[in-house]
Amino acid sequence: MNMEILVCVKKVPDPAENEIVVSRDGSDIERDDLVYSVNEWDNYAVEEAIQLVEEHGGSVTVVSVGDEESDEIIRRELAMGADAGNLLDDEAFHYSDGRGVAAILAHAARRGSYDLILTGAQAEDAAAQVGGMLAAMLDVPYASLVVRVRVMDGKKLKIAREIDGGNLEINEIDLPCALSIQTGINEPRYVGIRGIRKTASVQVPVLGAAQLGVDPATVGEAGAKVRKLDYFVPEMGEGAEILQGSREEMADQLIARLKGRGVIQ
Amino acid sequence: MVHQVFIYVAHRDGQAADSALELLSAARILSPDGPVTAIVTGWGEGLDRVCQEMASRCPEVWKLAHQDLAYPNAEAVRKCLVEVLPSEAVLLLAHDTLGMDLGPGLSVKLNSSFVSDVVAMTAPRDGALTLVREEYGGQVSTHVSCDISGGAVLSIRSGAFPALEDGAPGEVQDRSSEIGDLACGRRFLEIVEAEAGDVDITKEEILVSAGRGIEDEDNIEIAEELAKALGGVVSCSRPIVDAKWLEKARQVGTSGKTVKPKIYLALGISGSFQHLGGLKGNPFIVAVNKNSKAPIFQVADVGVVDDLLEFVPLLTERINSQR
Amino acid sequence: MINNMHNALVPPADTAVWGVPMAFVYILITCAGICLFAYILYRRLVPLFRAAPDQRVDRIGARIGKVLQIWLGQWRQPRYLLAGMIHIFIFAGFVLLGARSLQLILIGFWDGAALPGLGGQTGAAYNLVKDYAATWVFIACVIAAVRRGVFRPARYQAPPALGKDHLGEALLVPGLICALVVSESLFEASLQMAQARAGAAVSAPPLTLLWAGRALMGGLGLPVLQAVNSVSYFVHEVVFFFFLCFLPLGKHFHVLTSLFNVFFMRLHPGKVKPVRYGVDEDRLDDLPEFGVSKLEHFTWKHILDFYTCADCGRCSDRCPANRVKRPLSPRFFTIKARDRVYAKYPLWGKAMEARQALVGGIYGEDEIWSCTTCGACEQECPLGIEYIDKIVDLRRGLVDQGRVPQSLQKPLGALEKRGNPWGKSQRIRADWAKELADEFAVIVTSEKEPVDTLYFVGSVSSYDDRMQRIAQATARVLRHAGVEFGVLGKAESDSGHEVRRFGEESLFLALRDANTEAILNSGAARIVTADPHDYNALKNDYRGIPPVMHLSQLLSRKIVQNEFALERGEYTGKTVVYHDPCYLGRHNGLYDEPRRVIDAIPGLRRVEMVGNCRDRSFCCGGGGLALFYEPEEEQRIGVVRVGMAREAGAEVIVTACPFCLANIEDALKIAGLDQEMEVIDLMELVERHLPQGGQGRRDAKG
């Protein structure tokens, strides 16, 4: 049946035990000690794409808007089983807002003819926006927070979206379409150092604004409508505030605290 | 001068979601004196009831009834909103599963800015808004400037704004006739409910977590009662699972599940790093433990040094008596 | 020999049936038997030639020693006393009766055939011995059959989920052996009776089968005796060759392969085989596959192991994973593979193509990940069968295919990025030492600040709040002992010990190389560690680094040299038991050193977990990555272990491994024993019994 699938991946700071701290001047987070890996949600998306292609035939292309370090994460996804990868990097792309990133990806998507475009449901900034924007730019139907994908025939998919309370919303969606993938949809296979070394000979072309046909004015800092001003950490207390008083008094104090947090209407 | 401010009202079974009143509060910050319009899409009697409910707090309510909107299919809703919203409108939606589905694509079709999961905002100035968002699971916050001169779609985190108490009432306008064809590439089929007992603690916002201090399988009930009273779910640390008092799916920890609740009540949990390793984000942690030296008190926000077997039933009782 | 007096009865070689000279028949039987046997052996050898290479001809002297000790000396048999004694008797009998069997074959060709060297006095002595040997073999076989058939000890049971029962074979073979010795005895008894009739003075050694045979045939006439003689001989030859050809068909193949299996057995505990013998590390990238995913990826020695399993179940009986009903039973691991080899390489017909992979076929994924690599199985096996290398190879295969449980992927990723399984920052790896800042400064070595002794701390002791106390105690103890040491600090990465044993060889090599560089840069002449996993890695997995000692060795040596003494303290008067960590004890033979250290503390009463200590120590549940894996099990392995400690009457469990400490501490809580028992690390125990004011050491320098 053959599905040509494009998966958008992002390089993010490794979430495991990272202590994210704000840099001294507040302009960014402290990056010296960070290690990066592929966004966890995107990894699930790549695994899903590979499984779909294993079952139905076709190929998986991985693409990332990033910098030269993003090459490593593209290779990791190639080692996992993706067939090709492209790095979208250009000076003009830096400081793009979500819409800018989606526009760049849309240009990359138009270069091929993809049946399915996948993104992770969100990344470290929890914006959860690029997938939906990309779909709208390409004028394809979209569904977010997908936890199950079944191919119905060459023309449509049956998908499950995860909504509140652990319930699933079942939809039918026409191909070509775009989906944002939620964690837990599958069990991504392991990729180790050896796997990545095996991709050493594979080319990951770098595409810039010119090759993609992107108008620099619409992306990057120039085109951004949303701008990050600073990073900060809201005030937090030192250790636990130990409640005092009788059992009843402590219970009441706790209830007051919980109410202040939106629990207990 | 802000353009027209709209809120999109989510609803179920004829009742508006809690988020609707929170959106009204947020809208007031955007447009303190200007009018706010509530948009409600749907079909049938439930829709009418929600519109009436909103009309009691909101100066203008637009009712958009269409059979294809009986279930809020984001693709269809988007088509509808694109047709009825004026240009440069600012639309607020809840950052819920529908908001995540709808917001980004809608902003592209409206050619306006988009910011999601907003936790705070200040009044607009010179066509721009300053918003606060969280990143990295809540470890840090950022100030974000959003250019709203061409309109904006903003999704608001639930609980970040208070419910508006004092909205002036208004009337319902039926704008259903403005809706054109809503056929789209995605069709809703059905909802499959989670199996009873099939709880996914990783998606829960309120967790009541039992540790060894619960002492006995029969005492788990104490945690369950509290969870019910708070609208949350019971989770636990590893010893409870090992003892087979709760299923593995309930375990929080590095070898259990990673959870990102807003509120975490640690009952009788010492706070080992294997357990805390499963707790991400920036939850409000309440620790109840009879050992004042338990490490959990280092990381908790509020601590109660008491026997949970005595304290928690009392707490639950007091919560329930306030309803 | 008796058959020289052939005129009492017609000897087998001279008999004829229906006109056919039986000598001819016996030659035929022998040739057919040998040919069939040779053919079967050849078929059994085919997979060995297709298997991966192995290097097993080093250290010939040591190998001969193993054969003498374990094969000939049956050294491991008495560990299960009843079964062991039964087997020793049967084995000894077999060895002794070998010559007799050979002679009997020859007798069938021509009467008077004799084996060189067994004439005269030697012959007579041999006759005596062989008669008793046959008798005790008979008795042992009967006991064995009754034990297996009637009493059915639990160890041999085959839960349906795991495999099939082999009771049939277990009864058949003693039956065949009894048939052999009885027929041989009847053959000789009948001849003796006839000779006695003819007036010869022939006696049977008392209480032997021969003697009993004679007693039974007391009143029989010559024709009957002749019949008995000829028939029993015929039966003996047929059974003999039947038995010979039957051996390679089932678990009694070990009768033939055991000598070889023990000769080729593993000589280096603690080490793990290379990915492929004959392929150097720098050529590993050329290999298309790592590890074992098909039967032929096992080495020939591993396939020989599968053949050699006697299905005795001792390995599974000692296996901690099996004990808590994880889906792993070493015994069935081997038997399933053996059956697979037999099925894939049938005796008749072509070798079949594998339709299923090994893991996902005969093995489940959980089965392979369940092993803690404790080595109890290998320690127990009387036939020198190995397990750890096979499990590691299967894991390598799974890792190569990306089939790693999600629970292990996170720590592996963290190890790759941060050098520790929790993903914590390298910067804070030596932060545990800050606690000691008031007392002394812990040196973090580098090229600019070299030290003589390097204390390799390890990931768990660096980052885990509880285990940091072990690192702190170790530092204090070292200082007290006058050892000037340094640590690598953030230049230290996880030793990679479990990474390797969980099959991620490439990551292990990366960690090893990073650590090796840091170690060499430190200028240290020796390394000490309190973590047996790191100890084993540094000693057995790493190369080209200074010698490494475990802290218990260092202290033990100092105690013996009177350079280190301990005082009464917090634990005086308590009953303590020492739990042997797998990687200190079984894998590296360090049983006495930690005990000596404990015994140096006055006023402690130390007990042992009898039957479950030293090389029979029961694993705590596993260290390193094993802490992250989520197995299917009925209870925690550690809970079984603390039960043993409780039975030994201990109030305090002392262990010399941070992972043992973690597992046992958890286990005490789960078992609800944490009010009556506690667990403490050896270094912490020593720390609390150091003499006040630093008078514990006589010499200034360590």
Q: What can you tell me about this protein's structure?
A:
The complex is a heterotrimer of chains A (265), B (323) and C (702). Chain A contains 8 helices and 13 strands. Chain A has 265 residues and is α/β, with parallel strands linked by helices. Chain A has one domain (3-223): Rossmann fold (3-Layer(aba) Sandwich), CATH 3.40.50. Chain A has a 9-stranded mixed beta sheet, with helices on both faces. In chain A, strands 2-3 form a two-stranded antiparallel ribbon. Chain B folds into 2 domains: 5-178, Rossmann fold; 201-321, TPP-binding domain (Rossmann fold, 3-Layer(aba) Sandwich). Chain B is α/β, with parallel strands linked by helices and 323 residues long. Chain B has a 7-stranded parallel beta sheet with strand order 7-11-6-1-4-5-12, sandwiched between helices. Chain C is mainly alpha-helical. Chain C folds into 4 domains: 2-52 and 81-242; 281-400, Fumarate Reductase Iron-sulfur Protein, Chain B, domain 2 (Orthogonal Bundle); 406-560, Rossmann fold (3-Layer(aba) Sandwich); 575-694. Chain C has helices at 22-50, 60-72, 81-107, 120-151, 167-197, 209-216, 222-246, 254-263, 300-308, 314-318, 320-323, 330-344, 365-369, 376-380, 388-400, 406-418, 459-463, 468-480, 497-501, 505-521, 532-541, 551-560, 592-599, 637-647, 658-670, 682-687, and strands at residues 16-17, 20-21, 443-444, 453-456, 485-487, 526-529, 548-550, 575-579, 605-607, 652-655, 678-681. The chains are: A alpha/beta (265), B alpha/beta (323), C mainly alpha (702). Chains in contact: A-B, A-C, B-C. At the A-B interface, helix 3, helix 4, strand 7, strand 8 and strand 9 of A face helix 4, strand 7, strand 9, strand 10 and strand 13 of B.
